[in-house]
Amino acid sequence: MNLDLSTLFGRGNAPLVGVDISTSSVRLVELAQGGKEGLRLERYATEPLPRGAVIDGNIENLDQVVDALRRVWKKSGTRAKLVALGMPPASVITKKITLPAGMSEDQLEVQVESEASQYIPFALDEVSLDFDVIGPSPASEDDVEVLLAASRREKVEDRVAIAEASGLKAAVMDIESYAARAALDRVLAQVPGGNAGQIVALFQIGAQVTHISVLLDGVAIYEREQPFGGNTLTQDIVRAYGLSYDEAEAKKKSGDLPDSYANDILAPFLESAALEVTRAIQFFYTSTPYTKVDQIYLAGGCALIPGLLDIVASRTKINSAVISPFKGMVLGPGVREQALRSEAPAYLVACGLALRRFG
């Protein structure tokens, strides 16, 4: 294969940390076994990225991202040198294909490359290509379903280079939406009945983009991205109070803003956010055979903005909750529970990447 990794669907093993490089920050999570089949959150940390370092999932300033990754690694206190990294969903083409069962790894590889050329709009020597055998085909017992994943090679190499320049090694490359779903699946498994037969909508509200995944019994039945995120609120604060972007971002998080903020700035943002969520649900209904959503989960850095959960639940009339990817985990000695509570929803992808340690 073209990837010098343990594959896009890499097999996790020895101490491995999940590293999520988003538009606004680099987040790190390290998990370990914690007693009877449980997990322990050993450590987690975040470092902000300068504006423009990452735009639409593209690394625009390698040095700034390397600096942030070095700082977050040092701040976390981890000694793990192997990292699981995420690719933005928009930069990875995935396709489920059916192939004859019983093929060797080499035969599969040849067949996958042959099939890939039909689906990938670039020359094969420009892409990093990988595959994972999902299991027997529901349509035929003589076939297997194989998930094919391909990304422009330079996008993969940028992330590998960032890890190497930080003194780390990229051991696993995953797709961010898959990592988020892995973290969500672990949390849903703790719900009585595991949400069996329920349609669950996950809204990851980031700085610039909201990623929507709708799942039925752990399988994605709909995915979409909408250009909406917390940067809108930060820009509104900048304009209203004459602050720099960094000052506005800090005050947004601390709540240190004038009394007029709640009505003049926050309320209209919350209305916009609720409109985006209801619009996304309507798109889901009109573009799929499904006519209901049973549960909404909010994640991402914006999930805990005061009032957001209430307005989403009120406007959609759907059960809504903010998700903590660390629910049910034992906390390591260095993890402060109170701080974690206010930050956890932003770590869904990093947590899902860290779970790759356990295969």
Automatic annotation (TrEMBL):
InterPro entries: ATPase_NBD, FtsA/MreB, PilM, SHS2_FtsA. GO terms for biological process: cell division. Transmembrane segments: none annotated. It comes from the Bacteria. It holds the Pfam family PilM_2. Residues 16-184 form the SHS2 domain. NCBIfam families: pilM. This is Type IV pilus assembly protein PilM. The gene is pilM.
